[in-house]
Amino acid sequence: MKAIIPAAGYATRLWPLTKETPKPLIPIHGKPIVEHIIAKILEIKEIDHIYVVTNQKFYKNFLEWRNTFSAPIGIKVLNDHTTSNENRMGQIGDIQFAISQENLANDDLIIVAGDNLFNFSLLEAYESFKKHNSIVNPLYDAKSLKVAQEQGSVVIDENNRFVEFMEKAPEPKSTMISQGVYFIPKEKIKYFSDYLREGNNPDKMGYFMIWLLKKEPIFGHVYDKKWFDIGWKENLEIARKEYEEE
Is the pTM of this model over 0.70? Predict the structure, then answer.
């Protein structure tokens, strides 16, 4: 199994903090966000390589970080060669970039957004992934329609199977939100290139999930522990206070 961490955004909402530093390298409890993510990924022993996708602007930052970070498996930093918010590939574009460049279509994937922090183990969702042998997206009940308006929100049935996925819906039908983590069986990886070939929006995984739900069953795994979206300065401060390392 391989892991992809899309980390090629420009995080303009966090400026000036992210003007010279990419969001995944912002420290929380003394180490960069990306290292917290990697610690969670490493709990899954079947994962043998991690790919971090960044851009031309922050490629040097990530290389400097990589040269000082020790890990028990290979970690490779990929440069998508974009230079600004205007010409970025988008999250789905960067995932497909990693799949194509590193020939990742022959192994299962886990994708974890590079600005993701969560107080739970990925092992439970991984067990669900093995059970269903389908796409699995960990979920969190935010218990707030306002929060759901800012995220990808999901309606699930009694078996945790997705009924509907909404990306930043003005009127969400659920407060259950995607946590930016996706388990993809190798047989389904082809859908990323199919989606982009059709000319669909490459920006957010939520758009891909809406499209994918018409073709494949998707299952959620609901966690009750805290999840943090580091999209705004206020959220960053909350994470610094409430994030817990297990």
Answer: yes
